[in-house]
């Protein structure tokens, strides 16, 4: 990890800040549901809440996040839902296959049920729809996530830092388990 990224993650040595950051998807949900966001902004904040919940649970690259297709990448097996991305669609050519934890799945289902349709201009299976019927661009999604994190926590936090945050959080709990982090983050 670079010195710059270590410096950006230093605030997460504070357990209270970690708890606030991990609670961010639910805080965004409450903000949207209490109609504190304008009707135009609500679907965007709901998207961001879902994106952050996924990134906190499954630290994938933003290109994979932005291109999630509901039918191709979200697989339900009994009561569990998995994020499945084949190796042909990942930067490191390693498949992504993770069970989405219940807390993240709850935010994801809320977004899909209540706000995803409002974010679409053209029918699409993209989880995060863009203007043309495809998925939202990585740049747009990244900027929206970054802006919401800053607005609600005051942290300057780019989307790639989710991967470093995941590694730091895991190593804080399991010091020395570098190989696990290397394998999970690819």
Structure overview:
Helices cover 56% and strands 8% of the residues. With 186 residues, the chain is mainly alpha-helical. The protein is globular, with a radius of gyration of 16 Å.
* Approximate shape: globular
Write down the oligomeric state: single chain
Largest sheet composition: 3 strands, antiparallel
Gyration radius over CA: 16 Å
Q: Which class best fits the helix and strand makeup?
A: mainly alpha
Helix content: 55-70%
* Uncertain residue segments: none
List how many beta strands DSSP finds: 3
Beta-strand proportion: 5-15%
Mean pLDDT: 87
Largest sheet, order of strands side by side? 1-2-3
Enumerate how many helices there are, as a single number.
11
Order of helices and strands: HHHHHHEEEHHHHH
Distance between the termini: 14 Å
How would you sum up this structure in a few lines?
This protein is mostly helical and 186 residues long.
Index terms:
186 residues; three-stranded antiparallel sheet; single chain; 3 strands
What is the secondary structure topology, with strand pairs?
Layout: H1 3-9, H2 15-22, H3 24-33, H4 42-57, H5 62-66, H6 70-73, E1 74-77, E2 80-85, E3 96-99, H7 102-114, H8 116-119, H9 138-153, H10 161-173, H11 178-185
Antiparallel strand pairs: 1-2, 2-3
Helix pairs in contact: 3-4, 4-7, 4-9, 10-11
